[in-house]
Structure formats: structure tokens, C-alpha cells
């Protein structure tokens, strides 16, 4: 079971942001620094993010560093679930800018290959980023768990009910 494996630490958890308001992508002319211009978490998404953190705490799963895309829905997911996060542009969406896909995915693969820690690493990002790295499709709030040091080695998925 994936939850049991996470107790040993060192895994990479790719989390898609929690449930958002209806829509795809962001409104035309959105600004990263202004949450009012973006598609944000719905009230259900805020509950889902909090529940994710509770599931980790209730199961005794330690989380080390939490990194997130700069999009407000990702930052909010990370902070509601795990209390803090560091924005890392490598996790930013390339949905509207596919020419960034190869560079960002390559940087992320390199980072995961070199990741050596006893702590689980949480990376909160977007569907397109997770699919580019793993080939997996994930629902809002779903987590793809990767083996330490192996960017394409999926151990399993976690879904908050």
C-alpha cells in the first residue's frame, strides 16, 4: 500500500492542485501575482486541500519540503494542506505556453534524479506538468507518488475522497 511506503520517506509526491472554480486554463490576460485574475480553488477545493493535509497527519506521514507552482490555486492547495510552500517556477503551468514543456520537464527530471532525502517531497503543480513527466492523468487534488530518484517510476496514486 502506498501510504505504508510513504512512512519510510524519501518519495516524491506530484500533487495536482485541488478542485477549482469551473473552467479550463485561466481567463485571458490573467496575472500570476494577482489571484483575482486567475481561476482559483472552489470552496470544495479548499476543503479538499485541508483534508489532504489531515490524511497525511492522521497516518503519520512526514512531509519535508513543499514546492509549488506560482499559480494561486497551487499555492493555496499547498499551504492549506501542508501549511507552507516555496514557489518554484519549474512547476508553473505550460498549458498556454507549450514551448516551455521540454525545458521545465527536463529540469524537473534532473531534480528528481538528484533528490536524496529521508523526507517526502511534495510538488504541487498542474495536470499538464504531471502528464508530461509521468504520462499519468490525474484529477484535481490527486497525487502521483514517484520512487526516489526515478522521475518516471510511479509507485501509485493517492486520492482524497
UniProtKB/TrEMBL annotation:
Pfam families given in the database record: His_Phos_1 (PF00300)
Gene3D superfamilies assigned to the protein according to its UniProt record, in alphabetical order: Phosphoglycerate mutase-like
Domain of life: Bacteria
This protein's name: Histidine phosphatase family protein
